[in-house]
Each structure stands twice: as C-alpha cells, then as structure tokens.
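Tutorial handout. Part one gives the primary structure; part two gives the three-dimensional structure as tokens.
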Amino acid sequence: MAERSGAGEGAVDVDEVTRAVLTASRVLVAVSARSLAAVEDRVTLPQFRMLMVLSSRGATKLVGLAELLGVAPSTAMRMVDRLIAAGLADRRVNPDNRRETLLQLTDEGRRTVADVTARRRQEIADIVERLTPERRADLVAALTAFSEASGEPPAPAADEAPGLHPLGWAQ
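Part two.
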C-alpha cells in the first residue's frame, strides 16, 4: 500500500506526488535540452555541467572539479581538454601554489553559460506565466519544500550570479 503524506481527508499518496514530480521533471529536462540546442554542436550536457560548476565556483583544481561532478579525474581531464579546444575554458597556474593548475571559464565560456541559462529562464517564465497567481504561489511553496527536503540551495534570482549548485549536483 502506498504511503500517505498525512492523516485525514485530502492527504496525497506518495506515489501520486512522485508521479507529478516525474512528469514535471520531464518538462524541465525538455526545457534544459532546448536551452542547450543552440550550443549542442560545441557542448554536451556533461560538459555544460562542468561549465556551470566553473561558473559558480570560479577557478578550480581538476581533482576538486572531478569530485563536484562525481567523475574520475581522468574523465574530468578529457572533458576539460574538449572545453579548452572549444575555447570555453582554459588552464592557468595557481598563483598560490605554482605546482597546481587551475581550470576556469574563458569569456566565451561565461557567455555560453549566460546564454543557455537565459534561454532556460525565459522558457520556464513563459510556462509559469500561464498559471494563475494562486497556482504560482502554490508552485513556489511546493517546489521550495521539495528543494529543501532534498537539501538543494535556492537558485539565484535573475540578477544574481549562479549559486553553488546550479544544476543540482551538490557535494
């Protein structure tokens, strides 16, 4: 039997909520895919994840970047090499420890992140505009509760820099 989320009338079955979240996640994945379409000839989704991490963290050591992405350092190095070849990232010597190399976005990499994020934000805003003000308030409350339950920090406002975990891959 499915678990109920509370006692009494109107309590929602966990499976019903799970189905609703899965459906919404399909919408968000489609929005994400469309937002990447303009750069898909240069950047894959995993590479874009790396760009987002570099965007939010700034210059980062390869091992730290691999840990944040949950990949082996050799995999991260191959991804970095491709981003460098595409002109989206570069390496520089760590001024605090000359034996270390830091990875960072180029201006083109920052523009790519900003463009994809702006497209994603606009498409989501277009969907949200179709909701009544009451449904918007309900959606904010529900998604905030969902995000808090997962431990995900809030996304930045439109005029703020990206947060620490802009695509949901927390440490």
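Part three, for discussion. The longest helix spans residues 14-37. Strands lie at 60-61, 89-94, 97-105.
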